[in-house]
Write a structure and sequence with these properties.
Helix content: 10-25%
Shape: globular
Radius of gyration: 28 Å
Largest sheet: 9 strands, antiparallel
Number of helices: 11
């Protein structure tokens, strides 16, 4: 049951963040406002091979929690179960009540397994189910849980080539319709076809995750939190059951929360009591407090909860590990005013962004009070990225950005607080100028000889200048090449709370997506409480090594000794360092794996 518990927690994180991920890398056809409804088809590999990959039916529990996390009304969900044929399917069902969710979960519990497997069959049917019933105003998605391997029945006569062609056609149809495909690969038996599942996601703008054991699950989380999620899963507390009620505080940060989803993960059933911020005990379940239960989780959904500290009392079996997490649903978008259509290098453009709810500009100064915002700038020509802090005006974010070069730039604003963040849609502007004749040039008249003497000295000076310019260009090319130098390997991160001694699971952060440099704050998903790590910068070194330069107040230690990293310290494969933060009681443990 411990394995189910941990697997379900991370699969729940994966699926929830898939639902909330929009904008950025998704196809334009399916870009939807944050907080919009979704139409989802859940696709499950029901072949006998999954008995090894998923012996405890973690996939069933994950899918049921996915359904429980959805809004109380309006979303649509369908289910497709396949082997080398469609075992069972359920067309898109619009959720109008808890009875609808219960019906979907009972359907999942009834799914059987069978011989052979052909993912093209399941995906092809999922696309058809989605297109037949999806709402144009909703954001569509397909979630596939599988091991990515095919085993065709020789008696059908279907060849691997035919299966590949059917799969390609289904993927092309999904891509053309703006339907992202998200894949979760289950790899308990070590036979996961990771590349095949990743390819499905990459082609459609989705995301791919893998898990093989509880020890490997943190890598899934690092992949999830690197994507453009719009909701954060907030760890509330981990407790060990003692047979009595234990109190846990659940903080609702503002009045714009539509739903607060509290997941209680445990291997045994738990008893719950809930006290609202005014001190009144709430009935569970009731009109505004819904409860769902399964073999390894309980879920409380608070509808439009009052702002403040809620007290959750949890009674679990003695010695049972209980993990409690929180996800808020907001109906919020971040909008950025469009910059001028005509700009040139050196221009300073005004940036203004603000939150929108139900199409109306939000005036809630209390919500803004805990938020920070930054302008994210990408130089399209070079790939360089930079950030500019924006000023919080109480009902909007403002700032300025000066275009440094005659390049094309991609701009977007990111605003965040502890429980969520939003990113505006990207806007591309060009500061490039057209080709024009030099000022004051005098074209010669055809056929008329130039009566002036040939200018020897200007030519000589020009040659010398060109030589100097060539040397400068060589240095510049080397500098640009260094800026664009890539990284290899990954960094393993653990964060320890020095007050409690608790330590997070290791998170594996791949470095291959970075060019030139990145800071530690980026690896930590820009968590506000860890902001001082912005001044800890990594650059690529020689022989697959990396250089850490520390200009923050944090203390960097290696093998128990403090390092003077202000001028840079080199990390090679297997090196471990400890970063003691000064602005919060946390320590970050890093290991570089080349």
């Amino acid at each position: 049951m411990r394995r189910i518990h941990k697997c379900l927690l991370c699969l729940m994180a994966a699926i929830l963040l898939m639902v909330s991920w929009s904008g950025g890398g998704l196809p334009q056809a399916m870009a939807a406002a944050q907080g919009s409804k979704i139409d989802a088809v859940l696709v499950m590999d029901a072949s006998n091979s999954m008995k090894n990959s998923d012996p405890d039916r973690v996939s069933n529990e994950a899918m049921k929690m996915f359904i429980d996390m959805l809004s109380t009304t309006g979303d649509k969900v369908g289910v497709v179960s396949y082997t080398d044929r469609i075992q069972r399917e359920k067309a898109l069902l619009e959720i109008q009540s808890e009875a609808d969710k219960k019906s979907l979960k009972e359907f999942i519990d009834q799914l059987d397994r069978g011989p052979y497997t052909d993912i093209s069959v399941g995906l092809d049917e999922a696309v058809k189910v989605l297109k037949q019933g999806m709402d144009p105003a909703h954001a569509p998605m397909i979630v596939v849980l599988a091991d990515g391997n095919n085993e065709l029945d020789p008696n059908t006569g279907k060849t691997n080539q035919q299966a590949s062609e059917q799969l390609k056609a289904a993927v092309d149809e999904a891509k053309g319709s703006g339907i992202p495909i998200y894949t979760i690969g289950l790899n308990a038996d070590g036979k996961l076809n990771k590349e095949a599942l990743a390819d499905l996601a990459d082609q459609t703008g989705g995301k791919s995750f893998t898990t093989s054991s509880a020890d490997e699950l943190p890598q899934i989380l690092s992949e999830i939190f690197a994507s453009h999620q719009q909701l954060n899963i907030v760890p509330v507390k981990s407790i060990t059951g003692n047979g009595d009620y234990q109190e846990v505080t659940v903080h609702v940060p503002n009045g714009n929360v539509l739903e607060a989803n509290i997941s209680i993960m445990s291997s045994s059933p738990v008893d719950l009591k809930l006290i609202d911020p005014s001190g009144v005990e709430q009935t569970i379940p009731s009109a505004n407090v819904l409860r769902s239960t399964s073999n390894s989780y309980s879920l409380l959904k608070l509808l439009q909860p009052e702002q403040g500290d809620w007290k959750l009392h949890v009674k679990g079996v003695s010695q049972d590990k209980i993990d409690i997490n929180l996800v808020f649903n907001y109906d919020l978008e971040l909008m950025m005013d469009p910059p001028p259509s005509s700009v040139k290098a050196g221009d300073s453009i005004a940036i203004q962004a603000y939150l929108v709810s139900n199409g109306q500009k939000l005036q809630d100064s209390e919500l803004y009070s805990n938020m920070t915002a930054r302008l994210l700038v990408k130089d399209v020509d070079t790939g360089d990225e930079s950030e500019v802090e924006l000023e919080n005006k109480g009902d909007r974010f403002e700032g300025k950005y000066q275009l440094p070069k005659e390049h094309e730039y991609e701009l977007r604003v990111r605003a965040e607080e502890q429980s969520f963040y939003r990113e505006s849609a990207s806007v591309t502007i060009s500061a490039k100028t057209g080709s024009t004749a030099g000022a004051g040039s005098q074209p010669t008249t055809p056929g008329k000889p130039d009566e002036k003497a040939f200018p020897i000295w200007p030519v000589v000076i020009g040659i010398v200048a060109l030589a100097v310019l060539g040397a400068g260009l060589a240095l510049l090319v080397g500098y640009v090449k260094k800026l664009n130098q890539g990284f290899v390997g990954q960094i393993v991160i653990e964060i320890r709370d020095e007050n409690t001694g608790e330590k997070t699971f290791p998170q594996y952060k791949k470095l291959t997506s970075f060019k030139g440099k990145f800071n530690l704050h980026q690896l930590l998903q820009l968590a506000p409480e860890l902001k001082e790590t912005e001044k800890m910068v990594f650059r690529p070194g020689k022989n697959d090594r990396i250089i850490l330069t520390n200009h923050s107040s944090a203390v960097v230690e290696k093998s128990g000794r403090a390092l003077d990293a202000a001028k840079g310290t080199e990390l090679k494969n297997g090196d471990r360092i400890r970063v003691a933060l000064q602005q919060t009681d946390k320590t970050i443990l890093l290991e570089y794996l080349a």
